[in-house]
Amino acid sequence: MKPLNQYIDHTILAAKATEADIKHVCSEAVTFGFYAVCIPPYYVNTAKNLLQGSPVKVCTVIGFPLGNTTTAAKVFEAKTAIENGADEIDMVLNIGLLKSGALKAATEDIKRVKAVIGNHPLKVIVEISELSEDELLKACEVCLEAQADFIKTSTGFSKGNATIQAVKFIRKTVNNQAKIKASGGIKDYETALAFVQAGADRIGTSSGVAIVTKNNTNTGQNY
């Protein structure tokens, strides 16, 4: 197992996030050696410039947080993000399509984003709190069919967060065909470690500093 800091996507996705907040998160990511920062699309170029010369990756979100924007809009967002310097893309699954049984359309939505970002890792947020077990199984199958690199549990903006049970279920379903990003409500060292041990390859959290310093009084937010 790698050091825990190398699993962390240090995250700030709140609507009220300012440029000063982005600078602070990037500074923390460099100081604590996090794998990436996950920030709103508007600030991708800012973060890229701030992190120049460091190994920290820039990740941003597409179709966030609901996932039901048009595929064309998601493609444009993703293309622009890559042009602005994003290293990784986290897009939200169109949950309504999945629940409607329109699996081909849900798959195509992901495929078109994957096509426009090339070799950059694509994480698909399936929002586990909105899915039954059978729907989560279908979501995993859709992600595999679309050749997503990661399946991500949650946006942090819905009614529930990541769960150990869901991560284990996803790992059993996809085996090693895709990686897993656990995100939403992970705020302390013990919880983060448990998710990694359950099969998560990456942890999305706004509490990265609290996690790696084991300072559980600094709870951060869900996203």
Describe the structure.
The chain has 223 residues and is α/β, with parallel strands linked by helices. Helix content is 43%, strand content 16%. It has a single domain, classed as TIM Barrel (Alpha-Beta Barrel). The protein contains nine helices and eight strands. Strands 1-2-3-4-5-6-7-8 form an eight-stranded parallel beta barrel, surrounded by six helices. Helix 1 (19-32) links the parallel strand 1 and strand 2 (36-39). The longest helix has 15 residues, at 103-117. It is globular, with a radius of gyration of 16 Å.
Features:
223 residues; alpha/beta; TIM Barrel; 8-stranded parallel barrel; 9 helices
Question: What is this structure, in a nutshell?
Answer:
The protein has 9 helices and 8 strands. The chain has helices spanning 19-32, 44-50, 71-83, 95-100, 103-117, 133-145, 164-174, 189-198, 208-213; strands spanning 8-11, 36-39, 57-62, 88-92, 122-125, 150-152, 179-183, 202-205.
Could you outline the blueprint of secondary structure elements for this entry?
Layout: E1 8-11, H1 19-32, E2 36-39, H2 44-50, E3 57-62, H3 71-83, E4 88-92, H4 95-100, H5 103-117, E5 122-125, H6 133-145, E6 150-152, H7 164-174, E7 179-183, H8 189-198, E8 202-205, H9 208-213
Parallel strand pairs: 1-2, 1-8, 2-3, 3-4, 4-5, 5-6, 6-7, 7-8
